[in-house]
Amino acid sequence: MRYSATVLDHFLNPRNAGMMRDPDGTGEEEYEGCGDLTRFFLRVRDGRAVEIRFQTYGCGPTIAAASMASELARGRAVDDLCRLKAQDIETALEGLPEDRRHAADVAAGALRAAALDALGKRG
Amino acid sequence: MTRRVYLDHNASTPVHPEVMAEMLPYFTDLYGNPSSIHAFGRDAREGVDLARERIARFLKVSPQELVFTSGGTESDNFAVKGLAWARGRGHLITSRVEHHAVFRTCQALEGFGFEGTYVGVDGYGMLDPDEVRRAIRPDTVAISVMHANSEVGTIQPIGEIGRLARERKIPLHVDAVQTFGKIPIDVDALGIDLLSFSGHKIYGPKGIGGLYVRKGTKMVSIQHGGEHERRRRAGTENVPGIVGLGKAVEVRARDMRAEAERLTALRTRFWEGVRARVPEVRLSGHPTERLPGTASLLVRHVESESIVLGLDLKGIGVSAGSACTAGNVEPSHVLVAMGVPLDWAMGAVRCSLGRSTTAEDIDYVVACLEPIVKKLRQVLPVGAA
Predict the structure, then answer these.
(1) Is B383 inside any structural domain?
(2) Catalytic pick among B106, B324, B351, B368
(3) B290 - beta bridge partners?
(4) Measured at the alpha carbon of residue B196, what is the angle toward residues B195 and B201, in degrees to the nearest 5?
(5) Contact A12/B301, CB-based, under 8 Å?
(6) Residue of chain B minimizing CA distance to A34
(7) Contact A55 B310 (CB under 8 A)
(8) Residue B324 among the catalytic residues
């Protein structure tokens, strides 16, 4: 199998998929030339992301990366989320094939955008 | 154990047991070089000759008009380059929905001073012979059009194009890799001068194919060396492959019509099932002029590869109509030429049925597809696709 068991698990059972009403922060990232798009919604309490939702359009790894990113982000300080790297997501997914690395980039970028949006709103 | 269903017969097929049985001795006992004059060589030569005769009989052509190659891609390269280089310069006509083996060969020839016209298709993927007629110039040296499209299954009006070509004495090459052994082909009635075919699409082995070249057609070789294939294609013959191709053709000649009927019924069952259970889905290609076993779905707002992966995890093998590689999205050039909007084209999934496909397989795939598409649509950003 081309993808790790974790990638397949998150693809088949995406965590935190869906929309959110009145989020404290939203952000999206589109991968240029590819059409993959991920959008995150954050609910923030005391500077921490207490609830996260995502929506995505893309290939299997893109869905898995967004799902994994939502798990990694939950409960963490919003400042921290701005520093979450694509590599962190990829590592948590137990690796991505070379030509699918952008899946983690899209998820990290969207999450960062949502965190920055939440910080701006809070500030 | 997960059920396994292979619906990617346009990509490749398993070797038929009868074909395998006939090939095996040529690996172990009949291993001579057909060019050798001793008994070992003569035994191998006999196998090659028989295969050539079987294919000639099937196509109703002369055995001398057949050249064995390494497969469809080489046959296409040989046909297009062989015609072009024999004429030195000039104009080539092909279509925008060709297999890359023809499309990129024409593009490559443009780099050597040839000019190319790439004729468009309608929404069904079908060429208009009138457009081909309008594209013909006094210096047109060759026309190359595929018989049926591998992605959407549309069968081209080759007979009409053949008539145009013949009236103007322009050689017509037809890439028949997807039709050879699946539907009848009459090279004389259709006006075909060169015909590419392949072994592994018709339950023969991989790495073997052929090119029919009508007697008297001006051609040059693209592979030089020994005297093989009447000096048209140098290189020691792939004897087991050739024997396998010959047997595969003989089996197809026997089974082709009945299987075409069976596959057409299964394809209809598949499409009816999908249409009833999956919203916003279309069948691409021509409604009637199409390959018996090919059903290409366009699933709106869903990404092809995620469907392929979802089905793969259910033991089902289908092929993605658009591929995202290294961050570059590539909706199929065929669907783009057909004018399919991006939100449909990105969700193209090709299912191609074959010998082993049963009605139970079809029902299983339909049952698996419905929840996969539903799930993928649930995570979609609103208005993003």
Answers:
(1) no
(2) B324
(3) B154
(4) 130
(5) no
(6) B329
(7) no
(8) yes
Provide, as residue numbers in chain A, all residues whose Cβ is less than 8 Å from the Cβ of B341: none
Min Cα distance A56 → chain B (Å) is: 5
The answer to whether B309 contacts chain A (CB < 8 Å) is yes
Distance (Å, whole) CA B214 – CA B192: 8
Q: Is residue B384 part of a domain?
A: no
Contact B264, B357 (CB under 8 A): no
> Of the residues B210, B228, B252, which one is the last residue of a structural domain?
B252
**Does residue B22 lie in a domain region?**
yes
B28 touches chain A (CB under 8 A): no
Going residue by residue through chain B, which has 385 residues, state the pLDDT in tens, using 9 for 90 and above.
689 999 999 999 999 999 999 999 999 999 999 999 999 999 999 999 999 999 999 999 999 999 999 999 999 999 999 999 999 999 999 999 999 999 999 999 999 999 999 999 999 999 999 999 999 999 999 999 999 999 999 999 999 999 999 999 999 999 999 999 999 999 999 999 999 999 999 999 999 999 999 999 999 999 999 999 999 999 999 999 999 999 999 999 999 999 999 999 999 999 999 999 999 999 999 999 999 999 999 999 898 989 999 999 999 999 987 655 544 566 889 999 999 998 899 899 999 999 999 999 999 999 999 999 999 998 887 544 4
Q: Which of A28, A35, A56 sits opposite B379 (nearest CB)?
A: A56
Choose from A9, A11, A13, A57 for mutation: most chain B CBs within 10 A: A57
What order do you get walking across the sheet with B66-69 strand by strand? Answer: B66-69, B209-213, B194-198, B172-175, B140-146, B91-95, B115-119
B10 to chain A, closest Cα gap in Å: 22
Domain ranges of chain A: 5-122
- Rounded CA-CA distance B157/B8 in Å is 25
Cα separation, B137 vs B135, whole angstroms: 6
Residues B96 and B118 sit within 8 Å (Cβ to Cβ): yes
Query: Are residues B274 and B243 part of one domain?
Result: no
Provide the domain limits for residue B287.
Answer: 5-12+256-378
In CATH terms, A5-122 corresponds, of 3.40.190.10, 3.90.1010.10, 3.40.50.720, 3.40.47.10, to 3.90.1010.10
Q: Name chain B contacts of A12, Cβ cutoff 8 Å.
A: 310, 313
* CB contact (8 A) between residue B376 and residue A19: no
Q: Do B203 and B264 have their domain in common?
A: no
Chain A residues with beta carbon closer than 8 angstroms to that of B385: 57
Angle between helices B359-378 and B239-277 (to 10 degrees): 60
Instruction: State which of B188, B217, B252 marks the end of a domain.
Output: B252
Q: Number of structural domains, chain B?
A: 2
